[in-house]
Amino acid sequence: MAQHEILLNLPEVSIANSDASFDVYEDKELLGRIKVSRGTIEWVPSGYRSGVHINWDDFDRLMKKHGYRR
């Protein structure tokens, strides 16, 4: 089973002015980065310059439909 590691990079200012980013690793290799802002959440796969965005309302619906509880 793959080993996942997530490193959190918090900005020094409020998220209102700057994104928070999370580096996601799989087996010690960078899988991608999650960027969180007030308006959207963005996934930037490793090796890509830009990512895919989703607004918070759509993210909520996506997680409710495809996510699972532990």
What is the topological layout?
Layout: E1 4-9, E2 20-26, E3 29-36, E4 40-45, E5 52-55, H1 56-66
Antiparallel strand pairs: 1-2, 2-3, 3-4, 4-5
Report on the architecture of this protein.
Strand 2 and strand 3 form a beta hairpin. The protein contains 1 helix and 5 strands, in the order E-E-E-E-E-H. The protein has one helix at residues 56-66, and strands at 4-9, 20-26, 29-36, 40-45, 52-55. A 5-stranded antiparallel β-sheet has the order 1-2-3-4-5. With 70 residues, it is of the alpha+beta class. The longest helix has 11 residues, at 56-66.
**Structural class category:** alpha+beta
End-to-end CA span: 18 Å
Number of helices: 1
* Dominant shape: globular
Q: Strands of the biggest beta sheet: in what spatial order?
A: 1-2-3-4-5
**How big a fraction of the residues is strand?**
35-45%
What would you call the quaternary organization? Answer: single chain
Provide the low-confidence segments as ranges.
Answer: none
* Mean of all residue-level pLDDT scores: 87
Query: What is the percent of helical residues?
Result: 10-25%
Strand and helix order: EEEEEH
Largest sheet: 5 strands, antiparallel
Total E-strand runs: 5
CA-atom Rg in angstroms = 13 Å
